[in-house]
Write a structure and sequence with these properties.
It is built from 6 helices and no strands. By secondary structure, it is an all-alpha fold.
């Protein structure tokens, strides 16, 4: 029977994370971006949050609805565009206006994508921590099972030894009776010793 002095396992050392090889893997750069956002990241988060607020969505919905109703109900004068200033409806103004709105739309889209990437990175880092904890739990469970098995083996050995001691005690008592009987038969008095 062997007994270990210390049955605790040494702490598990983690291997360094490898570069990202696809979804579900976290690089150090991703972790750093989540923990220490840059000014651009904070601005992107703010824009993404502002774009997704119900008040912002309701504002633009009302604006589009009013704009559509103006032309639907306004009659031929509004539909012709004569009420707008000529520079607003000219070809020279149309291109810069479309360019500015397109660039602004793309920029806002990129800001929202940056914020979404940061959120995805944070989620990936969290899932990696959960995976690591699951591996530690499985290792602990395996250790507990091994210790329970070791405890069961030791209990079985103790039971075997107890049974042998009980048999040996009965044998010793039997031998003692025989020795007393033989000494009494030989006329030796051993009760005084």
């Amino acid at each position: 029977m062997t007994v270990k002095e210390d049955s605790t396992d040494p702490p598990v050392q983690q291997a360094p994370l490898s570069p990202s090889s696809g979804p579900g893997s976290t690089t150090q750069a991703m972790k750093d971006a989540v923990k220490n956002p840059t000014a651009f990241d904070r601005f992107a988060d703010w824009v993404s949050e502002a774009m997704g607020r119900p008040l912002n969505i309701a504002f633009w919905f009302v604006l589009v609805l009013v704009w559509t109703l103006i032309f639907a109900v306004g009659g031929p004068h509004l539909a012709s565009g004569d009420w707008l200033p000529p520079w607003f409806t000219s070809q020279g103004y149309n291109f810069p206006l479309n360019l500015i709105t397109t660039v602004a739309e793309l920029f806002i889209g990129f800001l929202v994508a940056t914020a979404a990437n940061r959120a995805q990175n944070a989620l990936t880092a969290l899932l990696d921590k959960i995976d690591m904890q699951e591996e530690q739990i499985q290792a602990t469970e395996a250790n507990i099972v091994a210790l329970i098995q070791q405890n069961t083996d030791i209990t079985s050995e103790i039971h075997t030894l107890t049974t042998q001691v009980a048999k040996n005690a009965a044998l010793i008592i039997d031998v003692h009776k025989h020795v007393v009987a033989l000494t009494a038969h030989a006329g030796i008095d051993v009760s005084k010793n």
